[in-house]
Design a protein that fits this description.
The protein is α+β, with helices and mostly antiparallel strands. It is built from 8 helices and 7 strands. Helix 4 packs across helix 5. The protein is globular.
Length: 214
């Protein structure tokens, strides 16, 4: 089992496994408490917090509107998200899998049922009626984390801080849903550390049948 977060169901499987087993380190994830944006701003120095508030005021002045899509809207919203993701990474080192037809088909099969069960959320951000960014967030009863997003490069030209926009929305939705943790998922990029997150190491659990024991 890959990428098992401490305390996840995989740990219970590991604890009761009767055959050979081994636990290995996997990816490092960064996590924040699921509180509204103002609570996250209290975690950082006042000077940085003021700069973030200025970015938020700019977002509000532009009139960017966030809307969570319904299950029946998911297929079209995913098409727009992937198109924005390709546009965002055009000419740069995009993950090849994210541009493949196989990946698009996988998302289309998986995400709508997850949205309808409350295990995922797709959000579109509109400016003057046009979708300029979209985000796919995965959710469990205790945790939510952004999985994939796409943003029109025109937002950078307008000096829109997309990461701050996504974080505010994610913090609001995650805290409103009663979850305890907002995960920034895998990776230890510098911009994530601005928020003073907690580091959590996922684990890889190797489980073998009793017949494979020495």
């Amino acid at each position: 089992l890959r990428e098992v977060r401490p305390g996840a169901a995989g740990d219970r499987v590991f604890a009761h496994w009767r055959g050979p087993r081994r636990r290995l380190p996997d990816s490092l994830c960064l996590e924040l408490p699921a509180v509204p944006m103002e609570g996250l701003l209290e975690r950082i120095p006042s000077g940085k917090a003021q700069r973030v508030r200025a970015k938020l005021r700019k977002l509000d002045a532009l009139g960017i509107d966030a809307r969570v899509v319904t299950g029946e809207e998911v297929p079209a919203a995913l098409d727009r998200l992937l198109a924005l993701h390709r546009l965002q990474w055009q000419g740069r080192g995009v993950t090849a899998e994210h541009t493949s037809e196989r990946f698009a088909q996988h998302l289309n099969r998986a995400v709508r049922p997850m949205v309808e069960r409350g295990d995922a959320m797709v959000t579109e951000f509109r400016l003057a009626g046009d979708v300029v960014a979209a985000d796919l967030t995965l959710m469990s009863p205790r945790l939510a984390g952004g999985y994939l997003y796409g943003a029109d490069p025109a937002l950078r030209a307008r000096k829109v801080d997309v990461a701050t926009m996504l974080l505010r929305h994610g913090a609001r939705e995650t805290s409103a849903g009663g979850r305890a943790t907002l995960s920034m998922l895998r990776g230890s990029e510098a911009y994530k550390h601005h928020w003073r997150p907690e580091s959590v190491r996922n684990r890889r659990l190797l489980l073998a049948g009793p017949g494979t024991a020495p």
